[in-house]
Design goal:
This protein is an alpha/beta fold and 303 residues long. The protein has helices spanning 54-57, 82-88, 90-99, 115-118, 135-141, 177-187, 204-209, 227-236, 254-264, 269-273; strands at residues 8-10, 24-29, 35-39, 45-47, 49-51, 104-109, 126-132, 147-150, 162-168, 188-199, 223-224, 239-253, 282-297. Bound molecules: zinc ion (ZN).
Length: 303
Amino acid sequence: MVKMPGNYKTVKKCGVCGAPKTRWQIYMKLNDEQNLMKCTDCGFLFNNRQRIDFDVIYPDSYFEKDNEVGHGGGFYCYGLLCKSQQMMYSFASDFIKKTTTGKATVLELGCSFGFFLEQFKTEGAISTEAVEMNKLAVKHAKKIVGRVYETPFDSFTTRKKYDYIVFFEFLEHVLEPKKTLEKVGELLKDDRYAMIATPDAGTIWFKLLGKRWSSIHPAVHNQYFTKKTIRKILEDSNYEIISLKTSHFLWADIYHIRKRLSEMFPSTKLFWRLFSFLDHKVIPFFNGGDLRVIARKKAISPR
Ligand SMILES: [Zn+2]
């Protein structure tokens, strides 16, 4: 077992249905400190203990090359990912473009460098805002996003209401997903949309690969959703599901793909280097399953 020193918070109830510890089973041992639990009431998968030493697991260098393996990040060169990020989350940008009439405001949680929002820069009717806690990412995002708040989402306050709130590869990181979704609901106008991407633990790949599944990062990923559990938590938090799909591919530039393959199979490193002249090309690459969700906030008061 790998030692994972750090500060932890012990989870007291299931993040989706609220069931107490007596209703959980150990699904998988992750390391000396953490187990992946399964709630027998709702099927939700989550860490029993969550890292809260954020300065260690989300260092300023999170988006920089050679970030410590197992802490997530490790993007080699995040600056290259603009085009691939936009292609990866086109389900959300297409939907925004399709459903916007007149002016609209999009808020992104954990916007990283702001690549997703960059595509709206030239769309006068759509204004963009973002919440991001990484210093380096904020520095980049400020150049392309209308307004960037440098804060964790838990501490973010505003009196504004948004038309769209998007968060990609974000919900699996939070400590209390229901609280996060309820806060998103408070920030959305009635009948407007939340759009989410998060790993899909319901795919065959997770069952086959177990701990080696690409989305297992015990230090930073606390929650693992399936179609069933994301639907339940959203419906319980006053949303109506508009669309719920699994994507089996991510879009990535050749540079990141050959880096990843070289890490998985070190002896092939020199071979992949032959393809370096294609580094900027973006192609689909197997991702192990990722959910794509569009949900509408239901109006609470009768209209
Ligand atoms: Zn549960």
